[in-house]
Design a protein that fits this description.
5 helices; 2 domains; 30% strand; binds zinc ion; 26% helix
């Protein structure tokens, strides 16, 4: 799965630029479909209109849907050299919504004829890639052990769990928040 080169694929951003070059009055309208449980997953629909008149008439050129499920757990990857298991945050750990929105736009533009080189967008290839290969590893993340100590007072949806510090070997309770430890206190 690591055989393809991401640089050969067009990004959604590049696809959007091509679209707006061709249709200066074009509009891309994106909507979150699952408003009841957006913290579990994101389902977006994107609609492409070629101009204001089409938008007013509700005549979209194409639509595109995308679904991304939130990763609630850190992923692990084996270090190439040491064989040690390391934790990392997948794209969908923190940015499932943004990632999904961009995918929907990429698919809508594809359906509107902006597939260009007849390849999937780079974003779609990245999605495929992250299904079974490694992302940036967090070398300094201590190993969590299973002992839990209840919800974080600041982030009630998060559970503080016991980690062992790589440096000191001492246990501490925390959860990961935006790539950093939250210890449940300010
Ligand atoms: Zn917290």
């Amino acid at each position: 799965m690591s055989k393809f080169n991401l640089n050969e694929y067009e990004t959604v951003k590049q696809r959007k630029e091509r679209f707006y070059n061709d249709h200066a009055d074009g509009r891309i309208v994106v909507e979150l479909c699952n408003t009841l449980n957006p913290l579990d997953y994101a389902l977006f629909v994107a609609k492409v209109y070629l101009n204001k008149g089409d938008q007013e008439k509700g005549l979209c050129k194409a639509t595109g849907y995308a679904l991304e499920v939130r990763d609630t757990e850190l992923k692990t990857t084996k270090d190439k050299y040491t064989g040690e298991l390391k934790e990392y945050e997948s794209v969908n750990y923190s940015s499932w919504t943004e990632n999904c929105e961009e995918s929907a736009v990429g698919r809508a533009l594809d359906n509107a004829g902006y597939s260009g080189n007849k390849k999937p967008s780079r974003d779609e290839m990245e999605k495929a890639q992250r299904m079974n290969t490694t992302m940036r590893a967090k070398n300094t993340t201590p190993k969590p052990v299973s002992k839990l100590s209840g919800a974080c007072p600041i982030h009630p949806n998060e559970t503080l769990r016991e980690y062992i510090s790589n440096k000191t070997g001492n246990p501490f309770f925390a959860h990961i928040n935006n790539g950093k430890y939250c210890f449940g206190k300010n």
